[in-house]
Amino acid sequence: MNGNTTGLGVILRRSNGNMISSIVGSVRRLTPLGNQLWAVFCGMRRAFLGTSRHVIVETDNLEAFGAIKFPNAATSPQVSSIVQQILLLKNNASWNCSIRYVYPRRNGVATYLALLGAELFTRLFFFMEPLGRAAELMDLDIGLGPHDPDLIEAEMVEEELELLEVALAAPQGPMEVGLAADFLAGAAFQMAPNAPDHQEAEIQDFIFEDDVEVEEEGVVM
Fold first, then answer.
1. Could you tell me if 10 and 131 are in contact, meaning their C-beta atoms sit under 8 angstroms apart?
2. Which one of 65, 142, 173, 204 is at 20 to 30 Å from 33 when CA atoms are compared?
3. Which Pfam families match (predicted)?
């Protein structure tokens, strides 16, 4: 959860990192601390109204975490009211809920959503799909890397496949010359020679130099 002075962002995720839903927007009538606490509360409420019965709530705001941990130190009626709602919900016997503080670098998705909320909305909205580029930040959180198209593998389209076939078949192409061909030549493979025109190629097995033990119906390396 993250709530800055004008924006609020909440992401609800399963234990495997997949998104359940998110809450994005702004509540400009609240103080900065009230906004942070409301981010915690509305995320808890959404989880409670769903099917989740074992929930960990994370906030990167140490002041909000302290206000929940030490409720008697509330500095205003607004803060006290929100904290009491948080504690009532947290202690409900029908679920297991814990609240913990995390470093801001572990809360990038919620921070991003809060900033979007401040720029786009004047109230809170509920989303079932990642908003903006939140999906990329979620993948970064669980170690799946960025969504940079230069770094993501893609399937070849028909035109690219045709160009590949031409390149591989070229007399001076990568099958005959270049680093890949040199590597293959030094890898202890015996390659069948190219067949003359209008003649089938001789069938020849690829053979490693390693010794092999022949067994019935198979070869054990």
1. no
2. 142
3. RVT_3
